Amino acid sequence: MKIYIREAMESSSLDLMESSSWPQLGSCKHPHIFRVVIDGSSFDVDRRLLTENCEYFRALFQSGMRECRQDEIQLRCVGALGFLVLLQVLDRKQPMLNSDQIVEAIECAAFLQVPALTKHLISVIDSENCLLMYHTASTFGVWDLSHSSALFIRDLSPDLQDEIHTLPCALVDYIESLQPRSYMAVCSHSPSSELLKDLQRTVCYLDETSRDWKVLTHLPLSTSTTMAGLAVLDNKLYIMGGVHNVSKKVVETGFCYCPAANTWSIVCGPQQLRYNFSLIGHDGCLYALGGESNMKALSSVERYRVSDGSWRSVSPLPSPAASVVSAITMNRIFICLWRGQGATDIHEYVPEQDRWLLVTTLIRQHSYGLHMVAHKDNLYVLRNGPCEDFLQCVMDRYNLSSGQWTAMLGQYGNSKSSLFTAVVRGDSVFTLSREATTEFTVEDQTWRLKREMNGFGRIGSIYTFLMRLPKTRAPFIENSVDQNLEQNLRDIRSCHRISPQCSDNL
Question: Do 71 and 171 share a domain, yes or no?
């Protein structure tokens, strides 16, 4: 896509991009190019691009009015800086924004009705701009952004109490009506007899008031979390695959827990039976990445679209891999692939293009542990040291905007918690071990210890994640899923939206 800026804007408005890097046009000669003039600045833009992405321009060009046949239009409802942000987003760029850019971009999203711009603004909400995002989006009626900002603020409310109460009362009341995300944990569990009590067969949450772990719900008896894929999507917990004990017989069905209804349901598992794989929830879809089958590493990737309940194969991983490390930030999916000799490649999956892009490579030795989390536009790769220093946990930070690596200060080997369970909420990182649950504050050059709570006294591998729990939960009927297992399986088989290959595996 080519977008041309005709007249230079003031330097203070060009933090986003330098006008000198854009070609200058003397006139709009291409049949699909027309000129948008805002506050004395001119933009030559592809008419089709704006028709596809902006409700305002779609209505304008289909109206039959004189303006739809002109080569130039003047916009007075938005600012040039906000329109410039819009053009960058439509050009698949993902700019970080300052306060002025945020306000004008929200104004632009409101008046021009651009879902892609709203989606980008949601992806860059952080602790520094969330209050501005919330107030401005509420003022202009960009409700998706307003709600997302309110949720973010709710997660940070203990640290933003003074700032929150500078907002109008109605906005404060809305924030307080929401529930913050809770830190959750699930242990490795394989299906067992109903007659045997299994303390591992639970989903737990951290009660931050009592600083202790409590049971939220019990896993269905037929569920396995041993070498399974776990992910949260739209505040529902999905568990796919898993194996039965040492035989590594794969559980063929998937399970979904809805905290609002306090119920479990069965969903179709991936077409390729796999274990020791990664499950990612993103933008209405689940992605099953790599893993193993018959003790062989896989490169295949499948996508489950929740709206139609079907799995399909997408672009495979760049190389076969099990237990793929992943993180999502700024609405982007990133993974780490270890390829030996101290090299860890970070790839990005681009759903719109269905392809993997190599982002960067980290050259660091490690023995066995690798984990990745994201905060703002930073990726944090956590690893243990090489063989002679394997008890140390060290970090490197990759900034997506600058493309630079930074070795983080501090050695975390003395921490009671394992950073390989790290989960980010706002500006905090939660991590846990059997001895302690620890919260860190993310700072520029280190993670600073904030507080410690009771540990998670279970054995085996631990999956950690975040979910919003309702203030009051519906009663849970133990084993309700298992009692209706055969009927649920028949329902899945009979669903016309499930591919024959997937149905045959049930």
Answer: no
Say if CB 71 and CB 36 are below 8 A apart.
no
Contacts of 10 (CB under 8 A, 6+ apart): none
Q: How far apart are CA 506 and CA 489, in angstroms?
A: 7
Q: Is 83 helix (H, G, I), strand (E, B) or coil?
A: helix
The three-class DSSP label of residue 447 is strand
Q: How far is CA 504 from the centre of its chain?
A: 32
Residues 95 and 3 in one domain: yes
Identify each DSSP E strand in 18-93 by its residue range: 33-38, 41-46, 72-74
E strands present in 391-483: 393-399, 404-407, 418-425, 428-432, 436-442, 447-454, 462-468
Residue 86 placed within a domain: yes
* CA–CA distance, 209 with 470 (Å, rounded to integer): 16
- Under 8 Å CB-to-CB from 481, ≥6 apart: which residues? 220, 222, 255, 264, 265, 266, 488
Q: Which amino acid is at 325?
A: V
Model confidence pLDDT, tens digit, residues 171-208: 999 999 999 999 999 998 877 655 556 777 899 999 99
Kindly state the tokens that stand for 415: 């921490």
pLDDT tens-digit series, residues 351-405:
999 999 999 999 987 666 789 999 999 999 998 766 665 567 888 999 999 999 9
Strands 33-38 and 72-74: parallel
Specify if 42 maps to a domain. Answer: yes
Strand partners, 287: 280, 303
Determine if residue 64 is left, alpha or beta; phi over 0 gives left, psi from -120 to 50 gives alpha, anything else beta: left
304-328 exposure pattern, b = at least 16 Cβ within 10 A, e = fewer: bebeeebbeebbebeeebbbbbbbe
**Could you give the C-alpha distances from 34 to 16, 93, 187, 324, in angstroms and in order?**
23, 22, 58, 46
Q: What are phi and psi of 70, to 5 degrees?
A: -80, 160
Distance, in Å, from the CA atom of 204 to the CA atom of 94, rounded to the nearest integer, reads 36
Domain count, the chain: 2
Examine residue 23 and state whether it is found in any structural domain, yes or no. yes
**Cα–Cα distance, 35 to 101 (Å, whole number):** 22
What angle in degrees, to the nearest 10, is found between the helix axes of 169-176 and 130-140? 110
Asked if residue 48 is part of any domain, the answer here is yes
**Model confidence, pTM:** 0.87
Q: Which of 69, 112, 60 is nearest to 90 (CA)?
A: 112
